[in-house]
Amino acid sequence: MNTAFDEVRKIAFRALDGAGAPAGTDEDGGWACAWLEAAEYPGLKVLADRLDQATPEHLTAGVSEIRDGAVDAGGASAICLGGALVELAAETGAIDIRNLNDPIYLLAFAARQAKHGSSMTVDLPSEAGREVRISPGGDGYAELEAKVHTAVVNGMTADDEAYDRVYAYSRAILVPQTEQSLLSGAGAGLTDND
Amino acid sequence: MSGSSLHHNTHERLDMRDPRKVMRLERLGAFFPTRLSFMRTLVRMMARERWRFERTACDWDDDGFGHAVWTIETPHGVLSFVAFSNDLAPEDRTDRVIAERWDASFALLDGEASDDDIARLKEHVPRQEAGRVSAKELVLSRANKSVRLFAYVCECLAEGRQPDIGKLAKVGYLMRTTAVYGNGKFGLGDYPKAARNPAFRGPFRAEMLLVFLVRNFQFELVNHIARARGGDKAASLSSDCAAALGIGNSTGLGMAPFIVRHPILFHHWIAGRETALARVRGVQRATPEKIERFDALLARGARHVAQWTVEDTRQMARIRVLRAELPQIKARALSKQSPWDDLYRWSENQLSLEAQEFIVALLIETYPELADDLEDAMGISDGNVLLRGLTVGRLKDLIEAHYDWALDIAFDEPANRQFFWYYSEDKEEPRLGDRYSEPGAEREMRLGMGLYVSQLHARLAKMDDGAGLVSAFLLREPHWRLAVQRALTAVRFPYSEIRDNTIGSELLAIDMLRCKLSFFGATKFDPRSDKWTRITMYQGAPLIDDLQRPDADDWWLPVLADE
User: Fold this and answer.
1) ipTM metric
2) Which of B95, B375, B399, B473 is 20 to 30 A from B209 (CA-CA)?
3) What is the dihedral of CA B523, B528, B531, B536, to 10 degrees?
4) Is the CB of B196 less than 8 angstroms away from the CB of A153?
5) Strands (E), B133-292
6) pLDDT tens across B125-154, in order?
7) Could you state, in chain order, the average pLDDT of each consecutive group of 10 residues for chain A (194 residues)?
8) Min Cα separation A95/chain B (Å)
């Protein structure tokens, strides 16, 4: 389907919010999802798969161990923790991360960090692996940023099924209507017609 | 914060107002439009760049139903405005966002509208939220006719006479918008796409342009209907009548989350306004010409306020106080040295918040040369708040220095967490609920920033290792991320945060609405409750054909025909 960067960002943010992702990490994850889609990575599918599997602990847990440039993510997802992992690497130097799910999301956060003045390189694991290294250097993912720019200008195409799955999760933040909310929640009463 | 330079984009040493004073909700809720408001800056740009507007297609029947296209030529490229109008059954008429049908619907396009575009948009634009648009479209909107005025004006014109201008001015519009969408919604082009065009680099520029074009649309529509009904004897709406009309808007809580969720952008809006005020207050001596201009604007503003009457008792009481105070401003002799600073300081001690903020807008209006360059910075929404070695102990100190207002609120008292903000399942309308008597608090929007940062401070106070890095702390306890970001944002962007409890029982959300609407440039602020307001946009603004008039920019607090 044809969509827009901010539209994807918003449904991903809401889906994470509705699933109980920690405040702030939901915004990070929503933005990173849109960035990956714009860069032609399956941000929505990865998010939808994670939400299918996630217990609240998957999304809310912090890392269990940080020591001497090594982090044990304990199965946490980079969708929520990726921003903080990249920031730590930018401050302390290269870090090796074990047991991290959805590491592809680190690409978005590394590209964002480069815009803030610290280029970082993410060495993604082989397909089945979950060990990642983030180290200083690289070109800030300039090629991917160019794709993102093109998508923002021209609009982008998302996989219908993945979009619909994340959209369905995004509905979890909506509050069912009651008579009281209809009457007084918006302050307009039933009508404000002219 | 005397002597601080708070505006990000200047090396001036200015005596800016302290954010502790400015960012209180009661004061924000007393803001008036200024010459930095977005409608004003758009009109100035269109005039300066000599934009050309032409209706290039029109397929209206005798009742004005059908579609029309306007082409706008700018130095930065061509834009198109496509409008659809159709018959609306009375039972379908509601100005709430939850409506599903409207009298008219609109899209603003980047580039020329082809026949294929129009055919595509005809299927989707009238359906609004239920339709899909493309990245070529930048803004989507809809409007309903004023039941009080639209048919009356058509009837008058068809009979060859002008409508009563006092009646026009009192209502203020022929059509009222109920939503204006941009930035990617429903597949629209993202803001960065729009901002490639220099015309749209200011905040909400594309949205403000669409509303300006809707204003013109309503004039052409009534003239068309009158001609169809009255034939040769029909009159066209006079320019005096048209100038008395803007576009109505009714707006609710959707305005409020925006200014909380975009703290850096909000900072730049406030900082631009405060910088302009500080510059004017820094003027050492006022020339006779400036004093004459100030007096003229004050007189006009007083007449505008005299015409501003609302049913809301709180707002009407404030207007009455303001009316009584304006003669005191006129009567006060200006000091020879630093006259405007002296006037402002006097107002802080003697006058209501409404009058103080009226003076702020008046002073900025008096000195275009000290204000107008600031508009360029008001669209900035980026800015990093990197941790860069920040320790837990230092973060705690920063919160105590910059978020002290939140630490003073007893959030363990139920009344201080009375409300929760949420999106309703009904068309995602933003609403405010009572945490203790309504369902849904577990799905609340995270807008209670004072609470979150206060809780963060309590957590930090219990930590043994003040030397630990915040980045590591956030990896272990990620649920503090939003609070950390907000605290650091407030340090670097001191006008970014409303310094009041946005979820407490004392909250009047209407203050947040008025603040944002003042930056749009809306007038006739007319609260219908503490969460809902009517406003008028572009009332008194120049018409499309008048943009080149020398006085085209002179419509701050316009005085309309005697009502």
Assistant:
1) 0.95
2) B95
3) -20
4) yes
5) 137-145, 173-181, 246-251
6) 999 999 999 999 999 999 999 999 999 999
7) 96 96 96 98 96 79 89 93 94 93 96 92 79 92 95 94 98 91 73 68
8) 12
Sort residue A160 into left (φ over 0), alpha (ψ -120 to 50) or beta: alpha
Give me B289's structure tokens.
């010409």
pLDDT band of B1, cuts 50, 70, 90: very low
Calculated CA dihedral for residues B89, B92, B94, B98, nearest 10 degrees: -150
The mean pLDDT of chain B is 93
Give the bridge partners for B53, in sequence order. Answer: B72
For residue B415, the model assigns a pLDDT of 98
B507's tokens: 């909250």
> How far, in Å, CA of B14 to CA of A191, rounded?
47
Q: Is B263 helix (H, G, I), strand (E, B) or coil?
A: helix
Kindly list the distances between the CA atom of residue B289 and the CA atoms of B6, B34, B279, B341, in Å, as whole numbers in the listed order: 30, 20, 18, 18
Contact yes or no for A175 and B432 at CB 8 A: no
- Closest partner residue to A193 among B147, B171, B424, by Cβ? B147
Distance CA B107, CA B130 (A): 14
Cβ-based contacts of B389 with chain A (< 8 Å): 91
Kindly determine whether residue B469 and residue A88, on different chains, have CB atoms separated by under 8 Å. yes
Contact (CB, 8 A) for B540 and B558: yes
- The rounded distance, in Å, linking the Cα atoms of B484 and B490 is 10
The mean pLDDT value for B467-476 works out to: 93
Which 3-state string (H, E, C) describes A136-179? ECCCCCHHHHHHHHHHHHHCEECCHHHHHHHHHHHHHHEECCCH
pLDDT tier for residue B449 given thresholds of 50, 70 and 90:
very high
DSSP E strand stretches across B487-528: 523-527
